Amino acid sequence: MSVAVVGGGLAGITAALALADAGRDVSLYEGRGWLGGLTHSYRHGEIEVDNGQHVFLRCCEAYRRLLARLGVTDRVALQPRLSIPVRSAATGRTARLRRAPLPAPAHLAGSLLRYSPLRPGQRLRFIQAALALRRVDPSDPATDEQSFGDWLSAHGQSPRAVSALWDLIGVATLNAPAPHASLALAATVFQIGLLTKASAGDIGWSLVPLRRLHGEPALQHLSAAGARVYTGARVESVRPRGDRWTIGVRGDEHVVDQVVLAVPPAAAQRLLPAGLPFPPGWAEQLGSSPIINAHVVYDRPVLDGPFLATVESPAQWIFDRTAQAGEAVPAGGQYIAVSLSAADDLVDLPTAQLREMLVPELAKLLPAARGAGVLDFFVTRERHATIRQGPGSGRLRPPPGAVAPGLAIAGAWTATGWPATMEGAVRSGEAAAAAVLSTVEHVPAEVAR
């Protein structure tokens, strides 16, 4: 049984590996010159640069299964216990969100009661709202239609509490501030990551450039499993042909028994056959939200940990990238990346303007940066990093898996029960592969053009 997997991001990699492992004759087509999708690396001079700062949590079980399948678990770090340093640009003080050896949700109570960016009354009201959020049903369609910001306001959360704590986590995971985020997705993030199991929120990150974590190992393991991988191969059409499917690639046609479409929404909308139950213009309605990263190379160390979260600052999250860059960083120097999610107001700013904004901001946040020399400053921009995960987005996200006999969809944008994250992408790939393996039926006439 032959299967074409269209798309070489994490969803496509996951689906292709599962299908190859099950004995299917797999061909994977990726339009770009590499595998890994939105988790890739490129060279900036001598530095290996990730297109974005991707982290995962201990509760990301599907993503961690993929790392194990790729044989790269030794290339990531995972905190033994959640600990997030949070520094205020206004005061210079550093608070720490750290879990205690207690069951959830009591595991965070101590650090929340000491969380200096909020006043004591705000801390107590935060805990009360967090307990109320545990009772929200993310699967209820009415929950998805509600704004997380409106829910927080109704539960006594001040703008200060939202910006200093709720958005600290929410913007990074949902790529949207609370007023523009779906309550269903926000509840999912906080329930799974922080409020249900104590160890769930421990943070993990790659110790190597992302191409060495995802793309290159995927190519190696797919080839070893017997799959054929075609990069630089943009699929132009997917059409039913009797009880099989025709894939158009570079003017050539390839006939296969089954297809997994693991591409972004706009490409999926273009390639899916007519007659399927997708509302007109669904991909445009989903939309997209940008993330940018500012990369700064200093002539000396300025950040004393793997990452730092910030409040009262546009810097959001700061990551040490020196080890990943290796010898490309001058001796004695440090390479950091500033991750800016929900970056609609920043994505089109010139690099020089971003430098004028962020370098002084980093000097406020990092005392060691005040006398340090900036050896390099550059910016990476992902204009379509995620779908817009706002109120009502859930009804536009079809579940991953079969949409017609022999045709399945996958992608972080599908309704996996998770936000559009690496975990969601891998879960969707697993679901699509399972659907393909369970069906060998004929294509119905109504999906034919």
List the SSEs and their pairings.
Elements: E1 2-6, H1 10-21, E2 25-30, E3 41-44, E4 47-50, E5 55-57, H2 61-69, E6 76-78, E7 83-88, E8 94-98, H3 109-113, H4 120-133, H5 141-144, H6 148-154, H7 159-174, H8 183-195, E9 203-206, H9 210-224, E10 228-231, E11 235-241, E12 244-249, E13 252-256, E14 258-261, H10 265-271, H11 282-286, E15 289-298, E16 307-311, E17 317-320, H12 322-325, E18 334-340, H13 351-365, E19 374-386, E20 401-404, E21 407-409, H14 422-438
Parallel strand pairs: 1-2, 1-14, 2-10, 7-16, 14-21
Antiparallel strand pairs: 3-4, 5-9, 6-9, 7-8, 11-12, 12-13, 15-18, 15-19, 16-17, 17-18, 20-21
Helix pairs in contact: 1-9, 1-14, 2-14, 7-8
Question: What is the structure about, briefly put?
Answer:
The protein is an alpha+beta fold and 449 residues long.
Estimated structural class: alpha+beta
Estimated share of beta-strand residues: 15-25%
- CATH-level-4 superfamily name of the largest domain: FAD/NAD(P)-binding domain
CATH topology of the largest domain: FAD/NAD(P)-binding domain
Shape: globular
How helical, in percent, are the residues? 25-40%
Straight-line N-to-C gap: 24 Å
Poorly predicted runs: 441-449
- CATH top level of the largest domain is Alpha Beta
Please outline the major beta sheet: 7 strands, mixed
Number of strands: 21
Q: In the CATH classification, which architecture of the largest domain applies?
A: 3-Layer(bba) Sandwich
How many discrete domains? 3
| Biggest sheet, spatial arrangement of strands | 8-7-16-17-18-15-19
Number of helices in the DSSP assignment: 14
Mean pLDDT, all residues: 95
Backbone CA Rg: 22 Å
